[in-house]
Amino acid sequence: MTFDGFPDDGLVFYEGLEADNSKTYWTEHRALYESCVRAPLQALVDELADEFGPAKLFRPHRDVRFSNDKTPYKTHQGAVVEPPGSGAGAWYVQISADGLRVAGGSWRLESDQVARYRRAVVDDVQGRRLAGEVARLAGGGWQVGGDRLTRTPRGLDVPDDGRADLLRHRSLNVAQQFEPAPWLHEREALHRVRAAWRDVVALNRWLADNVGATTKETRRR
Asked: Residue 122's domain is classified under what CATH number?
């Protein structure tokens, strides 16, 4: 299937799901979800696979076991590319009623990965490389996120060149949100995702080279 954009009916589907997050609504509109959300997203990531690798589409059902929010369905559809063996650094894309979201980096790091991340941030060469890359992305409209401590960990000192803030991170990612626009329903959406993912290649490479895979048993998602 060739990607030709996200049909407007897909965004309308999520507007309805936000208003009525129920099994009844889902069952009645599942065909719309499959044809106007899941199928075009799969087509998009399939076309990007040669450059970035195969993607995994997330399931539409929420895991409500440990949440006070018991609504059964996600109000977005996401897909992630995690390069085999990299251990850290991924690409993400998401479609919802709010439009298109693209992101890169790491969303969860184990304790051994966090330790390696901090050592690299303190290192004058690798730390400055990361600070410069994050500053470049932030200047280009990316939102810098991730799990962060309220203060810099004790015993870790770095110059005031952006690295002190980076030391507070226990994970590091960047994202851009595109509001609904005519190009979202056209092939232009593919080109925008490709360009955005290319923009975070250096960040993902830094994470893969300096953080890598965990040696701990991976937690179930």
From this structure: 3.30.930
* pLDDT, tens digit, 9 for 90 and up, residues 85-136: 788 899 999 999 999 999 999 999 999 999 999 999 999 999 999 999 999 9
The answer to the question of residue 191 being in a domain is yes
Instruction: Show the domain range for 155.
Output: 8-210
Is 94 part of a structural domain of the chain?
yes
State the SS3 of 150-212.
CCCCCCCCCCCCCHHHHHCECCCEEEEEECCCHHHHCCHHHHHHHHHHHHCHHHHHHHHHHCC
Q: Is residue 139 part of a domain?
A: yes
- The answer to whether the CB of 201 falls within 8 A of the CB of 136 is no
31-65: pLDDT as tens digits: 999 999 999 999 999 999 999 999 999 999 998 88
Single out the residue of 60, 94, 97, 96 nearest to residue 79, CA to CA: 94
Residue 216 within a domain: no
Give the chain's domain count.
1
